[in-house]
Sequence to fold (141 residues):
Amino acid sequence: MGNTQVCLDLLYSAHIGSGVDLRDEKNLDIQKRVLLSSIEICDLLGLNPLVLHYEFETKDLKIEEQFIELHIEVAEFASNHGVELCIENIEVERVDPVIRFLERTNTPNFERLKSESTMFSRAFCNAPLCSPARAAASTKD
Fold:
């Protein structure tokens, strides 16, 4: 058999888990700076997209409004750096708040996410954690 070389252009993404929380009023400035710095790092290293977690929705309308406004600001910052943002939510019982979030963050960055996404409303996962779920999806196990 001949020697066949395969050249793959690998794409790398970045992931921020629940460690960045734009609802944390007490530490909001540092939370925002960490997220903005993460976007800058993605830009410098060519990591795209940057996946953010959507963890929960509070009953406090002021905090939720601030959360939306900050994500709109962050999405614009990310767009200026050529970084796409994705919202991850593997817990089906929390899908409605994520859809409302995407509807309210009406920015080109999140619009692209909405137009190219797939929602699985009746899907089951092998593990309720991000990494095992992603591994199963990519290996089909």
